[in-house]
Amino acid sequence: MKPKSKILIIAGSDSSGGAGIQADIKTITSLGSYALTAITAVTIQNTLGVKSVIPLQPNDIKKQIIFSANDIKPDAIKIGMLHSKDVIKKVLESIKLLKIKKIVLDPVMVAKDGSRLIDRSAIEILRENLISKVELITPNIPEAEVLTEMRIKNKQDMILAANELIKYGAKNVLIKGGHLNTKKVEDILFNKLDFKIFSNQRYKTRNTHGTGCTLSSAITTFYSCGKTIKKACELGIKYVNSAILTNPNYGKGNGPINHLNSMKVIKRFK
Ligand SMILES: Nc1ncnc2c1ncn2[C@@H]1O[C@H](COP(=O)(O)OP(=O)(O)OP(=O)(O)O)[C@@H](O)[C@H]1O
Ligand SMILES: [Mg+2]
Fold first, then answer.
1. What span, in angstroms and rounded, lies between the C-alpha atoms of 82 and 213?
2. What is the pLDDT along the chain (270 residues), one digit of tens a residue?
3. What strand order describes the sheet that includes 6-14?
4. Distance 255 CA to ligand 2 centre (A)
5. At 94, is the secondary structure helix, strand, or coil?
6. Is 232 in the pocket of ligand 1 (CB under 6 A)?
7. 9 lines ligand 1 (CB under 6 A)
8. Distances from the Cα of 76 to the Cαs of 59, 71, 82, 108, in angstroms?
9. Is the distance from the beta carbon of residue 62 to the nearest atom of ligand 1 less than 6 Å?
10. Has 220 been annotated as catalytic?
């Protein structure tokens, strides 16, 4: 089988393999596309937590992007962890040069164990400059709170926060509801014209390491193959939901989900 599309991932490495660039490559591959990478930082972590973060030089991140993408032109870009203001500046320069429209931004800020993965000055430039350059932004609740400086306690707050992010120039916002204590897990997609609530079964499991990275990569894959943002979100959320259900229960902490669980989704998506 030939890959359906080519996706450039700009993100951090997770040595445990469940999140970050490892989760992105597994997701994109298992959904039938080709992944190129630009690594922004190397994290030393396992399912129990993050031990350290080793950032790469901003210039070397830009070089990875340009050198790879000028040779194999991506159909879409997925952006994950960008730890500093200088890195975001280099990514902004790079996407301007590449002129690729389909960009999904997962504004990774905090790891599942609460470790901060991005510094404060980076948050401002991300909000003021990067959000408006991408087609979709996928914050979780804590990230949406940081970006909007609002507290989010329920669905109404999620809608208000999404609306606030639209004011910063976001075209589409998917606020993920994994962190709210609700019976069903609800993710809300919002743009200037429309909003859609995706409601799914919430599983009682600690094995949700990398759900956010996996989701944004799955959405980017479907989007790169011609699905609308709304359809790509719906299919991506389904993929993550069944990947959580069939998680392999690895590790002593927050274990990974099952990235190989894509067969049913693939049939429908062809
Ligand atoms: N327990 C769960 N059961 C079912 N779906 C879940 C559960 N937890 C999260 N999800 C789904 O996983 C996706 C990612 O949401 P989440 O809020 O966990 O993102 P995140 O916090 O960015 O993840 P990460 O910690 O990996 O960065 C969403 O579609 C959400 O609905
Ligand atoms: Mg996340």
1. 13
2. 899 999 999 999 999 999 999 999 999 999 999 999 999 999 999 999 999 999 999 999 999 999 999 999 999 999 999 989 999 999 999 999 999 999 999 999 876 667 777 878 899 999 999 999 999 999 999 999 999 999 999 999 999 999 999 999 999 999 999 999 899 999 999 999 999 999 999 999 999 999 999 999 999 999 999 999 999 999 999 999 999 999 999 999 999 999 998 756 655 665
3. 49-55, 34-46, 6-14, 76-79, 103-105, 136-137, 172-175, 184-191, 195-201
4. 15
5. helix
6. no
7. no
8. 21, 14, 18, 19
9. no
10. no
Name the residue among 241, 253, 269, 15 with its Cα closest to residue 261.
Answer: 241
Give the Å distance between the CA of 71 and the centre of ligand 1: 34
177 lines ligand 1 (CB under 6 A): yes
Give the DSSP letter of residue 130.
I
Pocket test for ligand 1, best of 22, 174, 176 (most atoms within 8 A of CB): 176
In the chain, the DSSP E strands lie at: 6-14, 34-46, 49-55, 76-79, 103-105, 136-137, 172-175, 184-191, 195-201
Residues 101/135, Cβ–Cβ less than 8 Å: yes
Which ligand sits closest to the CA of 111?
1
Sorted by where each starts, the structural domains of the chain and their CATH numbers stand as 6-269 (3.40.1190.20)
Q: Rounded to the nearest 5°, which phi and psi values hold at 187?
A: -110, 140
Q: Is 211 a catalytic residue?
A: yes
| 30 burial via Cβ count (<10 Å: 0-12, 13-18, 19+) | buried
Of 43, 138, 148, 208, which residue is the catalytic one?
Answer: 208
